[in-house]
Design brief:
globular; protein biosynthesis; 8-stranded antiparallel beta sheet; translation initiation factor activity; single chain; binds guanosine-5'-diphosphate; GTPase activity; Translation initiation factor IF-2; 16 helices; alpha/beta; 6-stranded mixed beta sheet
């Protein structure tokens, strides 16, 4: 905050010369149009016998955050858990989502469920559960990379006739990185060659150990095709939800996340949003990123019009000025004018950011400075290599070189090219990616650009270890 000498003099209704004279006495040579800081202005004004009342103008975004009510315990009610299904391709994620949805459809609803939205709710024993219908950990992590935390519980689907596969391991690591509890659903148990015991044995290697073997992971054996044991799975979700105590305040301005959105020819921008706290109502002024508008109409997952949506409820929203990106947080504001000011600010910031080249989040180049400034306490690493042996060798060496200031944590390791999913995980977890004799694929290369993730490619393990050691102690040679 600054003020010019002239403006300060005008406020006090005195001649600018007097202000300049005072400043000189204080050791500052100033001209009439010079900006002086708030502290200096206060001293000058005090010396001249005035009282100063500095009003700091907060930006609208900050005002919005500060206006966020603190929920008191008594305002909170239990909300339905939000569940995401993850797992290897073809293990039955979509089938399971469909089976659960259809098993819970009452006859009267059946006709209504033609229109598909990105999430739905079911009721089991009088309690609701929300399923977010974006199978795959890539979507899950892409949302997380944008700051959205939507999922409370992850269901890890594994086909009993196939066992743990590379994307199973990825899903485990993505869920862990998000600190989301995992329920294992062993699927396809109707198949003659199903071997659930083998799946359990394989999962112990990833620290998912069933209770009957002394662990604390919940396993449910299901068949999406035969609709077998689905009730049991829902039961277990409710059990985990009870432990998690997911709560929200329904009596406040709504806030949540855009799950998916598109431009509909007839209806304009259509967004499926998940309300995470508060209650969203028709007529509310809503903002998501730089999209805004008055909620014109809302539909639940069956396509039925609703006038309001409470915590954990997914709804389709009409009325946005443009299509908001998936993963964007939404807010409602009472004052439309205020809402538009926030949007203006966001547009300005967006433009500024587009002009400025942002540095990678964590980078080896800058790691030492970031450690010194206390910004980094843990260096997250994702290792991709051509052979499993290299992954393990690097993991072991790296985990030993942590210091008191910074711990090294390998959050994911796997065989094969560096994929988009690796980059999104790195971005969401503020990690770097190391590749041995592998390269990023096309999608990964695009993601590296947009996510500003630091990736390093090596042929020799020793070089990688040396680089990271050097980076941690501030001795890394700059890359040219
Ligand atoms: P996703 O890629 O994980 O979403 O897997 P899908 O749900 O598309 O299922 C892949 C294939 O497995 C499909 O042909 C399904 O019909 C089949 N499938 C899914 N669940 C079961 C099951 O419980 N039993 C049997 N026998 N087949 C299943």
């Amino acid at each position: 905050e600054t003020i010019t000498v002239k403006a300060l003099a005008e406020r006090m209704c005195i001649n600018a010369g007097e202000v300049i004279k005072k400043l000189m006495e204080l050791g500052t040579l100033a001209t009439i149009n010079q900006e002086i800081d708030a502290d200096t202005a206060t001293i000058v004004a005090n010396e001249l016998g005035f009282e100063v009342n500095i009003k700091v103008e907060l930006d609208k975004e900050t005002q919005l955050m500060m206006a966020e009510p603190e929920d008191e315990e008594k305002d909170l009610i239990t909300r339905p858990p939000v569940v995401t299904i993850m797992g290897h391709v073809d293990h039955g994620k979509t089938s399971l989502l469909d089976a659960i949805r259809h098993a819970n459809v009452t006859a009267s609803e059946a006709g209504g469920i033609t229109q598909h939205i990105g999430a739905y709710q079911v009721e089991h024993k009088g309690k609701k559960i929300t399923f977010v219908d974006t199978p795959g950990h890539a979507a899950f992590t892409a949302m997380r990379a944008r700051g959205a935390k939507v999922t409370d519980i992850a269901i890890l689907v594994i086909a009993a006739d196939d066992g743990v596969m590379p994307q199973t391991v990825e899903a485990i690591n993505h869920a862990r990185a998000a600190k989301v509890p995992i329920i294992v659903a062993i699927n396809k148990i109707d198949k003659p060659d199903a071997n659930p015991e083998k799946v359990k044995r394989e999962l112990t290697e990833h620290n998912l150990i069933p209770e009957e073997w002394g662990g604390d992971t919940i396993f449910v054996e299901v068949s999406a095709k035969q609709k077998q044991n689905l009730g049991e799975l829902l039961e277990m979700i409710l059990l985990v939800a009870e432990i998690g105590e997911y709560k929200a305040n329904p009596n406040r301005a709504a806030r949540g996340t855009v799950i998916e959105a598109e431009l509909d020819k007839g209806r304009g921008p259509v967004a499926t949003v998940l309300v995470q706290t508060g209650t969203l109502k028709v007529g509310d002024f809503i903002i998501a990123g730089v999209a805004y508008g008055k909620v014109r109409a809302m539909m639940d997952y069956t396509g039925r019009r609703v006038s309001k949506a409470g915590p954990s409820m997914p709804v389709e929203v009409l009325g946005f000025s443009e299509v908001p990106p998936a993963g964007e947080l939404f807010y409602t504001v009472e004052d439309e004018k205020f809402g538009k000011q926030i949007i203006d600010e966001r547009f300005k910031k967006k433009r500024e950011e587009e002009l400025k080249l942002t540095a990678p989040k964590v980078s080896l180049e800058d790691l030492f400075n970031q450690i010194q400034e206390g910004q980094v306490k843990e260096l997250g690493i994702i290792i991709k290599a051509d052979v499993q042996g290299s992954v393990e060798a690097v993991r072991q060496s790296l985990e030993q070189i942590g210091t008191d200031e910074v711990r090294v944590n390998v959050i994911h390791g796997g065989v094969g090219a560096i994929t988009e999913s690796d980059i999104m995980l790195a971005s969401a977890s503020n990690a770097i990616v190391i590749g041995f004799n592998v390269r990023p694929d096309v999608n990964a290369r695009n993601a590296i650009e947009t996510e500003k993730v630091d990736i390093r490619l090596y042929r020799i393990i020793y070089d990688a270890i040396e680089d990271i050691k050097a980076a941690m102690s501030g001795l890394l040679e700059p890359e040219y």
